[in-house]
Design goal:
By secondary structure, the protein is an all-alpha fold. The protein is built from 21 helices and four strands. Helices cover about 60% and strands about 0% of the residues. Pfam families: BPD_transp_2.
């Protein structure tokens, strides 16, 4: 008797770790949709998006992108390049050393967000979607198609954590929500970039020059945005574009190349910054530039105290005020009771030394405290300074600072016969008053960067890092903690006073209200600390970029009115939640927040 067996025709379920996308369509189709949608988004920018020029940017022209169309064009072109690289097109492999899929998702998402923000703004401002032209409908459909395709790209899904079978409804909900968030993060994650191969020195220097040139173009475009809608679109495009470049691995490769030529990179960065006034047709945006440099220089000085030494200083803006008031008192201002007029070099020394003395006087009795106690004492010093200069008006106290009226009519600087208060013609370019001060502050910023680099690489810099990491262990190893912290406090105060001497002449007037703990406009102690944390503690580029963002964004978001600080605070909370180490982190701090990252072969001391 024979037994007949039939094969099991049940289809096997896919393995749980099989890569799949967020949207259940085939990966090949999704990649094609992402590529085609990105190409159509680029094409749509050459069509009219609306029929009237009432919407800012004049999006009525065929064949010539303008306003927000330029941002969609850039985002669409970047997404197209990443899509083509994901197909393995010859010559584009260098674009995605860490893989293409995550970069495609960020680039497509940024293009979609900018395009739909524009379409919605047109519809709201002009009174409905009937005001859209074919180009507007095309860009909305194309970017939506591209987004659907990008979300279909496969990725490794994480395994869900085990849960108690007897868990209640709330525990089950938290478990499911946590797993969904983990899946979403995995969908936009990328692999580790492959090591960048060594190129000839001239080629690597050309790459550094190209990166700096792109940075100058982006900054000049952002600071020169003429209306609110364009600046919001710029923030969207720049944010998602940077994320796409980071996920592709290009940022990591650029960082490795610049690390091989640190001196050339730093010099090139200052040359690129010096070219900024020559890109402007008037002095309007040079004003923002010089204030950004003042804010960034003070933030870099605070970075020595907070980032390297680990001392939480909540009254740091007072040292900026000490330098500004000291320089104003010897500037020859008619409001000064001293009636003296020092030359610039002497005023700089007076401001820096005054801040140094105050730093030592405040630090000596208080630096034996730690943590929150030190923060409270420094916060009190900041408020004492503001109240003191407010009361030395001749009525409540001696007549020194003119009270709440401040010291006004501070004359412009004159350095070796060069009057910074008047315009000068250089090579056919007219350099206005604020551009003159921009160059002066750029020189002072270079001095501060040099001090930061040399001190961070020195024996005292290593002692600062040891105190920051574990003060008890540092003391046990023989480090004089009090002396080391006092030096950090004094150096940081001196650098802030140095910037304050220039601020007094730029603003013409110094008043107590300029040096608050917190306010709607920087510089103040809260914004300075936020700039250090946002940019990346212990690095050079971090506080500079953080200060630029914290000064530029509130200046451009004034149309939000009373909701400005709400939106700004929400953005900071989200950034600290998802990138607590800052925009440009020190490698050691990055490992502290992301333990799953690979340990570097060499730990940077200053993250330069």
């Amino acid at each position: 008797m024979t037994t007949q067996t039939t094969a099991d025709k049940t289809v096997a379920a896919p393995a749980p770790n099989t890569p799949s996308g967020l949207i259940g369509i085939p990966a090949n189709l999704g990649r094609a949709l992402a590529t085609g949608g990105s190409v159509l988004a680029v094409v749509s920018t050459f069509l009219a998006w609306t029929w009237t020029s009432a919407f800012p940017g004049d999006l009525t022209v065929y064949g010539y992108p303008g306003g927000l169309q330029v941002l969609v064009l850039v985002g669409g072109a970047l997404a197209t390049l990443f899509c083509l690289a994901s197909y393995g097109v010859r010559g584009l492999g260098w674009l995605t050393p860490a893989g293409a899929d995550a970069a495609v998702k960020y680039a497509v998402l940024g293009t979609f967000a900018t395009a739909w923000y524009t379409v919605v703004s047109i519809s709201v401002d002009l009174g409905g979607v009937v005001n859209l032209e074919p180009g507007g409908y095309l860009v909305a459909a194309a970017t939506l198609i591209a987004l659907i395709g990008a979300l279909a790209l496969p990725f490794e899904r994480p395994e869900p954590d085990p849960i108690d079978p007897e868990a209640g409804g709330w525990e089950q909900f938290k478990h499911d929500a946590g797993h969904a968030l983990a899946v979403l993060r995995a969908a936009f994650a990328s692999g580790s970039p492959r090591p960048v191969r060594t190129l000839p020195s001239y080629a690597e220097i050309l790459i550094i020059v190209a990166v700096l040139a792109v940075g100058l173009v982006v900054f000049t475009y952002g600071i020169g945005t003429e209306y609110d809608e364009l600046f919001v679109g710029f923030l969207i495009t720049a944010g998602f574009g940077f994320s796409a470049l980071n996920r592709s691995g290009l940022i990591a490769h650029a960082s490795q190349i610049s690390a091989r030529h640190q001196n050339i990179t730093v010099c090139g960065a200052f040359v690129a910054a010096a070219l900024f006034p020559f890109t402007q047709t008037d002095d309007q945006y040079a004003t923002l530039g010089v204030y950004i440099l003042i804010f960034a220089t003070v933030a870099l000085g605070l970075n020595i105290v907070v980032g390297l030494a680990g001392l939480l200083d909540l009254g740091y803006v007072a040292f900026l005020g000490v330098g500004a008031y000291a320089a104003a008192l010897v500037s020859g201002s008619p409001s000064s009771p001293f009636g003296v007029h020092f030359p610039f070099w002497a005023a700089v020394l007076v401001g820096a030394l005054a801040s140094l003395v105050f730093g030592v006087l405040i630090g000596a009795p208080t630096l034996r405290l730690r943590g929150d106690y030190l923060a409270i004492v420094t916060l009190g010093f900041g408020e004492i300074f503001r109240i003191a200069v407010n009361n030395t008006d001749g009525t409540s106290g001696p007549d020194i600072t003119n009270g709440s009226n401040g010291i006004a009519s501070i004359p412009d600087l004159n350095i070796l016969g060069f009057d910074l208060g008047v315009a000068h013609d250089i090579g056919g370019f007219t350099i206005g008053r604020f551009a003159n001060y921009f160059f002066l502050m750029l020189l002072i910023t270079a001095v501060v960067v040099l001090v930061f680099r040399r001190s961070g690489d020195s024996r005292i810099g290593r002692a600062w890092v040891a105190i920051r990491e574990d003060e008890t262990a540092a003391l046990a190893m023989g480090i004089n903690g009090f002396r080391v912290k006092l030096i950090a406090f004094a150096v940081g105060a001196t650098l802030a006073g140095l910037a304050g001497t220039v601020q007094a002449h730029v603003t013409y007037t110094v008043t107590p209200e300029q040096y608050l703990f917190a306010g709607t406009t920087p510089p103040n102690s809260a914004f300075l600390l936020a700039a250090v944390v946002l940019g990346g503690m212990g690095t050079i580029a971090g506080p500079l970029i953080g200060a630029a963002l914290l000064f530029l964004i509130p200046n451009k978001l004034q149309f939000l009115g009373d909701y400005q600080l709400l939106a700004f605070g929400l953005a900071l909370v989200l950034l600290m939640r998802f990138r607590p180490e800052g925009l440009i982190p020190n490698r050691r701090r990055q490992l502290e927040f992301h333990e799953e990252a690979d340990a570097p072969t060499v730990l940077s001391k200053t993250g330069a």
